[in-house]
Amino acid sequence: MPTYHALKPENFRTTVDGKPVDLFTLRNRKGMVVRITNYGSKIEQILVPDRDGTLGDVVQGYDSIDQVMNGQASMGSFIGRYCGRIDQGRFTLDGVEQRTEINSPPNTLHGGKRGSRFRVFDARQLDESSLELTYVFQDGEEGFPGTLPVRLVYAVDDDNALTLSWAAVAADKTTVVNFTDHTFFNLSGDGGASILDHVASVNGSRYLALGDTAVPTGDTVDVTGTPHDFRTPTAFGARINADDPMLKLGSGYDLHYVIDKPAGALGLHARVVHPGSGRTLEVRSTEPGLQLYTGNFLEGKTPRDVGKGGTLYTKHSGFCLEPSHFPNAVNIPSFPSTVLKAGQWSTGRIVYGFGVA
Predict the structure, then answer these.
(1) Is the pLDDT of residue 180 over 50?
(2) Three-state DSSP state, 150
(3) Fewer CB near the last or first residue (10 Å), C or N of the chain?
(4) pLDDT beyond 70 at 20
(5) Taking the model in full, what pTM does it have?
(6) Which of 182, 198, 274, 325 is catalytic?
(7) Is there a contact between 153 and 165 (Cβ–Cβ < 8 Å)?
(8) Is 322 tagged catalytic?
(9) Residue 2: predicted pLDDT
């Protein structure tokens, strides 16, 4: 018997902003299933086996497009054109001050009020195991300069890995770009259960210091001796209530780690194990940083937090591992640059590898 809630594509078929929306299914030859809607390029379901071979749904999501549009905006989304926070929604580019939409006062968050989370991507299923999604960010959209077409491919392989690959080009003028994926995971297979028993490892010896509005200041902090040291496998819940200013600011873990790997290389970011089911998740990426978020603002509110099968998503019932360039890099010259000159390309990959322990 299935231990997960079946999604119906017809519940996602509609038109938004004059563009068709649907639910697409990717499969490998071992039974892994990934379901994605092209509204916001959101992952709605990932089915992978536990240690006994039983398939379970390891991500939070929704049953219909109406629930998606009324739900947690970031849940499952591909985030752009600029993920994370931009301080005061301002930065200077080629000597000109740019002002982006303020949607998380006093800052811009995840691309603004109508970032990619709220946009319909053009979709084309390439084969049973891969999906192409494309979108063109317009010059001036959400206050960002320059036309920026992006092509995104989701693909599953027979090793039970899901790879997200993207390529974007500054078509006509200098712009900025920072992409990530914002899937909420729960490896237990029960999207309403606590993730505090999940055991995590993060390949980062420093994290970005934050100011009062959760924007990076430009400083980095050594994790040694702090509750943020996940270099040794540690349960999310082991230190989440520690007397620590960053944990208090985020109501849990909501920090960006500097990943210990060569710049631009596809390297290990994090590994998470759910002891009960045996499921494991290993995250690799080309990006220099990783945002760790423990679902601190899942609040069990109706209708926003009512998910698949009527499951209520409450605080700490999902976690996110979001590889990207550093938030607010547009204002901090010492951070890896997110500036893209006219004609330049930005490419990246995130690999979510699932297994059992």
Answers:
(1) yes
(2) strand
(3) N
(4) yes
(5) 0.97
(6) 182
(7) yes
(8) yes
(9) 56
